[in-house]
Amino acid sequence: MIQMEMECNSITRLVLPAIRINIAEQLEHRYGMRQREIAARLGIAQVAVSKYLSGNYSKALKELTEKVRKSGIVDGAVIKAAGTEDEKEVNALISDLCYRFAAHD
Question: Which residue from 2, 96, 14 is spatially nearest to 62, judged by alpha carbons?
Answer without folding.
Answer: 14
